[in-house]
Specification:
Blueprint: H1 3-24, H2 29-46, H3 48-63, H4 65-74, H5 79-92, H6 97-100, H7 102-120, H8 133-141, H9 157-162, H10 167-193, H11 198-202, H12 204-224, H13 230-272, H14 298-307, H15 312-315, H16 320-323, H17 329-335, H18 349-356
């Protein structure tokens, strides 16, 4: 039914066993253990780019989380409108919630496929997907510190006898793997939670999920290790180790990129802003003027304004001829006559004093 999962998983495992089998021997427990570990690394390497997209998507969602809360409150009674507005907001910010779930969704079928393939490796069985009978037999005979990779702590005694393995050997190998895998799961979740904003941590749903990932999931790995084969414990340990290292690398890389963008933006603003004491310059041909920045030579404009010749009408002082009506004739005297003023009268002292002032 799920052969489309079992065959690719068994093929990748077969490829890595072929590589390490030539180094340590086909029936070596180290060769099979490394094959399982590098099966995980192969899968996670293929999912590296989606993981980076997931991290960036989560950071963007944290930035506009307050807007999502406003939409939830505004359309609390209209679920359909609420979903439409949330989807519209996410599309405006270029966020795809389903894209962030891709790495997790892909790992689930791989875990199921590996678990099924390892359970199929039993003494006396023939071909198992990409492995022939010889390959299955090499896995059954392989031991890691005296324990077979298909055995687990709670396995019945008769099945342990088929693998020629003592329960004490299984406990010695499985218990350290369980503890280390549980600790790695906790620190992976802790590193992820530490990146959340204060608004996200204040959300009750987020707080519940943080407690689950920090404490319940590691405890589940510790308890589930009693029923998981040693190979599955190695898969879980290597998967969490890869996730922890990948998070550290990706987060630091994203932080450096964002810091570089901030420094570049600040530098651009400083370059565009006029320096203290510098003359504003006019924009070049085809260049748009910068809002808030005066263009042109202000000092030159002020000098030109100061040197502008005064109007002759305003600056020229009246002469005695201008004030004497006889010099312009009777027609001019009548045209310039002011009511209430006696024509032909010489200017008084007050008027002359006013002019001199």
């Amino acid at each position: 039914m799920l052969n489309f999962i079992y065959y690719p998983v068994s093929f990748i495992l077969w490829c890595w066993h072929w590589v390490f089998g030539h180094v340590f021997g086909e029936s070596s427990g180290i060769a099979w253990a490394l094959s399982v570990v590098f099966l995980v690394f192969t899968l996670r390497a293929l999912l590296f780019k989606p993981f980076v997209g997931q991290v960036r998507s989560m950071r963007k969602m944290q930035e506009f989380a307050p807007e999502l809360q406003k939409i939830k409150k505004k359309y609390a009674n209209d679920r359909q409108r609420q979903a439409a507005e949330m989807q519209k907001l996410q599309s405006e910010h270029g966020v795809n919630p389903l894209g962030g779930c891709l790495p997790m969704l892909v790992q689930i079928p791989v875990f199921i496929g590996l678990f099924h393939v390892l359970r199929s490796f039993k003494p006396g069985w023939g071909e198992v997907y990409f492995f022939d009978a010889k390959g299955v037999e090499s896995f059954v005979q392989a031991k890691l510190f005296g324990a077979n990779l298909s055995t687990f702590i709670t396995m019945p005694a008769d099945q342990l006898a088929q693998f020629s393995t003592q329960r004490s050997s299984v406990i010695i190998v499985a218990i350290p793997l369980m503890i280390i895998a549980s600790i790695a799961t906790h620190f992976t979740a802790r590193h992820s939670v530490a990146r959340q904003t204060q608004a996200a941590t204040d959300n009750p749903q987020t707080a519940i999920m943080n407690k689950l990932t920090l404490y319940i999931f590691p405890l589940g790995v510790l308890v589930g290790g009693l029923f998981f084969p040693i190979a599955i414990l190695m898969y879980w340990l290597s998967n969490n180790g890869w996730t922890l290292a990948q998070q550290h690398f990706v987060y630091r890389s994203i932080d450096r990129d964002e810091e570089a963008k901030k420094v570049e933006a600040i530098a651009q603003r400083k370059d565009l802003a006029p320096k203290p004491g510098a003359k504003p310059t006019a924009p070049r041909a085809g260049q748009k003027p910068i809002p808030g920045v005066r263009t042109g030579n202000a000092k030159a404009m002020g000098t030109a304004k100061a040197k502008r010749p005064a109007s002759p009408v305003q600056d020229k002082a009246p002469t005695a001829a201008d004030l004497t009506p006889e010099s312009n004739g009777s027609s001019a005297s009548s045209s310039t006559e002011i009511p209430g003023l006696i024509t032909g009268r010489s200017p008084g002292k007050k008027q002359g004093n006013k002019k001199r002032r």
